[in-house]
Structure formats: C-alpha cells, structure tokens
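#struct-pred
JK: can someone run the complex with zinc ion? inputs below
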Amino acid sequence: MDVEQFNYLIPLIIKRRKVLNTRYLHVALILKGKKPITYAFNKVGSRSHGCGYNNVTLHAEIAVLKKFGNMAGLKGLRLVVLRFSFQNKSWTLSHPCADCSIVLKKIIKQYGLHGVYYST
Ligand SMILES: [Zn+2]
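RT: done, structure tokens with the ligand placed:
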C-alpha cells in the first residue's frame, strides 16, 4: 500500500502532538476501496471510558472501530493502521499489540472486515 496517500493527515498529527507530547502517533483509517470513510488517533483514556481501552490508551485501530460504530457495516472494508514518527517526520513501522490482534481477528472472522494493513 502506498502510505503517501495518507500524507494529508500529517498536519493533523503534528497539531495533535502539542496535546499528547509523544514520539509516535498512531492513526487508523477505515477504507472502502481506496476511499477513507473515517479515521481516529490513539487516545489517552482509562477503563472508565468503556471497553477497548488498554490501560491508559485507546489504540487507534480500536478507536476507529468505535467511531465507525456499525460492526455489521465493516463487511468488505479495510482497516489501515499507520504510525507516524515525529523524529523522522515520516510513517514508520506499525504493528498490532496482542490485545488489538485478538479483537481484529475476531472482527475479520465475525463481520467480514476485508483486511488490516499496518505501515511498514
Ligand atoms: Zn493495540
């Protein structure tokens, strides 16, 4: 996948860093074909915000699924997870944590999500 197509998100990511002050930021998008339908960043939260929060953060891939809301509507759609490095000012290697892997495998199986792409 050509991650350059998501470069339009970089200004938003850089703006967001002022709040989060992290070295990396994850963004996840749901795509219909090549068209992004919605996207979400990883968020700081807590379990009191509901399920999907892993200790103090809500991972981007789960955040975007929560934002999208309609699990049945995921059939045939794709999920893209990108990690942006503030140091290199570019997309960098992204991979799912164990918790997200389990959730995503379940969603692929149960709801027909077409696939998940992680930036490399
Ligand atoms: Zn995760």
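RT: quick notes.
Residues 54, 59, 96-97, 99-100 surround zinc ion (CB under 6 Å).
Residues 23 and 107 are 29 Å apart (CA to CA).
JK: thanks, will look after standup
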